[in-house]
Amino acid sequence: VLNDCKVAASDQWYLIRHHAVLAVLAEAAVITLNKHKEWEVFSVVKDSDFYTLPPPVRNQRGNRSPDLLIYNRSLKFAMIVELIVTLETDILRARMEADEKVAWWKEQFEECHYECLCFSVEIGCRGGFVSSSFVSFLKFIGMDEVEAKKYALMCQRKAFVYSQFLLDGHPRGYSEHR
Which domain of life is it from (predicted)? Predict the structure, then answer.
């Protein structure tokens, strides 16, 4: 139920958990990078209807937007972040899938002469695992280690709570957690 259930996947129950965790990660990125006005931060959670790309980068039909897209036009620098919330035993497989997804986006930015870094950040869906890549990404964008660990813990708890909702048969959560 927590990872590879066909019904849960087709009903997008995992997406609910993923987006709950991503909202916390996006908040951390916005808070950290908003100190510098040149950075633009977009996420599929907060910007699902309006995802702005710097010209001439374009989305392509069938390509899902990255979980987080962060860029600075004046520096010609972009960061693409894919969040993975999965069973701890499936991290490697999930990371390879994320790398495949972001490859097209990275190529788009590089063709526009942007330096582009891609990050796969992982949270275990049972709440017991936060990868070093998660904290490393937050530190890379300028968050101090104490804050980075605080946000990692918040994401870890969010993953655990929404996984518990799945186990309880309430994938969308209870009203007090929405």
Answer: Eukaryota
